[in-house]
Design goal:
- By secondary structure, this protein is of the alpha/beta class.
- The chain contains 13 helices and nine strands.
- It folds into two domains: about 180 residues, P-loop containing nucleotide triphosphate hydrolases (Rossmann fold, 3-Layer(aba) Sandwich); about 180 residues, no CATH class.
Length: about 400
């Protein structure tokens, strides 16, 4: 027997997304070459894995280490140094790494916390370093950061480094109050004994403190990551939907240039229907009763003669407009289709995220309100577009304008 349609999105998939961080957290380890990242990883794993390259090498800049000995994974990156190209390479790899994790629901490809390692003997942390920490995880806002001073052999250096780092972070956050760093602790460690003539001068220390503090912060790290994961997931789906809307609106404008009754020509309805179905599938809703209700209502409201005529009247009223009737028809077809895409995207996103109450939504009312919100903004952009072309433009110019509407939203 075929499964009964429930009118709900693929809840299992969405639940996977919002619960993607229920197991071990992932700690991203950043730092310059030679700061002691590998030594720290080896000390925690009680093995020389980092130096020999054992572990899951994801790219030439990223490796993942985990073991039953510790309750979190460690995502290691190569030393970032201060080279612009080097830094961008790491940031690009991390962005792709995390997006792939969200797309495929792979737990070991997310970021929950950062350890930023600094050589404690250098006594250096500046605003440029802190900006790099912020930029490398630009999409993972509010991720907890622990500054780890490695090679903290001297007690005097330890106190000076903590004071210096605390002041640097305060200064950075004052200057960047809208995008502050969430530095939750500063921990000095010695991951490998300091020896002189085979005599231990400084023993290993601080590792237990680092592990314990990481465990204490795990619930908060998961909460922050959970919110970010959902935002990125919605953003990815929105990007895919934008591409669908752009293609359909351009196709509609091209068809609109043909002298056929607009905006309810069968070919235009077919383009819009295909667009709406593709968007619903992007959000994992598919061909169920909720999707059909949103699609049918969007088409019904968006393709009414009243909206088509009002758009045509509004376009003709643009000062200085001097284009052929076919171009005006193309503009109506493209704008109606673009607006339908924007409206349906909003509705499908609400359903996907659980914001919409599926049993009590007045779809016609909500969709009409969305059209009334989007259409004036689109028409304002259309007037600006016409003015920039001195009131004269072609269908080709129009399609570029439609694509720009999507591009400016990204």
């Amino acid at each position: 027997m075929a499964a009964k349609k429930t009118g709900k999105p693929d809840k299992t998939r969405y639940q996977q997304i919002i619960d993607l961080n229920d197991e071990k957290i992932n700690v991203l380890i950043l730092g310059t070459s030679g700061c002691g990242k590998s030594t720290l990883i080896n000390a925690l794993l009680e093995s020389e894995v980092a130096q020999t390259g054992v572990g899951s090498a994801v790219t030439d800049t990223i490796s993942v280490y985990e073991d039953e000995k510790i309750p979190f994974r460690m995502i290691d990156t190569v030393g970032y140094e201060y080279g612009f190209l080097r830094q961008n390479k790491i940031k690009s790899d991390l962005a792709k790494f995390c997006v792939e994790g969200i797309k495929k629901t792979e737990l070991d490809k997310l970021i929950h916390m950062i350890w930023f390692c600094i050589d404690g003997t250098t006594k250096r942390i500046d605003q440029k370093t802190l900006e790099y920490i912020r930029s490398v995880t630009n999409d993972w806002k509010d991720v907890p950061v622990i500054i780890v001073f490695t090679k903290s052999y001297s007690e005097l250096d330890v106190s000076e480094n903590i004071e210096m780092a605390s002041e640097a972070v305060r200064t950075y956050n004052r200057r960047h109050s809208r995008r502050p760093l969430n530095v939750v602790d500063i921990i000095p460690v010695v991951a490998k004994e300091y020896l002189i003539n085979d005599t231990t001068i400084v023993p290993r220390r601080g590792l237990d403190t680092l592990v314990t503090r990481t465990n204490e912060l795990t619930p908060e790290a998961k909460r922050v990551a959970n919110s970010t994961i959902k935002e990125i997931d919605i953003k990815l789906k929105g990007g895919a939907a934008n591409s669908i809307v752009a293609a359909a609106a351009v196709a509609a404008a091209t068809v609109g240039a043909i002298p056929i009754p607009m905006p309810d020509a069968p070919v235009l309805v077919a383009i819009q229907t295909g667009m709406l179905k593709a968007i619903s599938k992007t959000y994992g809703i598919g061909d169920d009763s909720t999707a059909n209700k949103i699609i049918d209502t969007t088409l019904k409201v968006g393709a009414t003669t009243a909206i088509g005529k009002s758009l045509l009247t509004a376009l003709k009223a643009i000062p200085g407009l001097n284009v052929a009737a076919a171009v005006l028809n193309a503009a109506v077809a493209g704008i109606v289709t673009f607006a339908a895409g924007e409206v349906s995207k909003t509705m499908f996103e609400r359903v996907y995220s659980g914001e919409a109450e599926r049993t009590s939504v007045d779809y016609e009312k909500e969709i009409m309100e969305l059209y009334n919100r989007y259409l004036p903004a689109i028409m304002k952009k259309a007037e600006e577009f016409s003015n920039s072309h001195d009131g004269k433009f072609t269908v080709s110019d129009l399609t570029k304008f439609i694509i720009s509407l999507i591009s400016n939203k990204k």
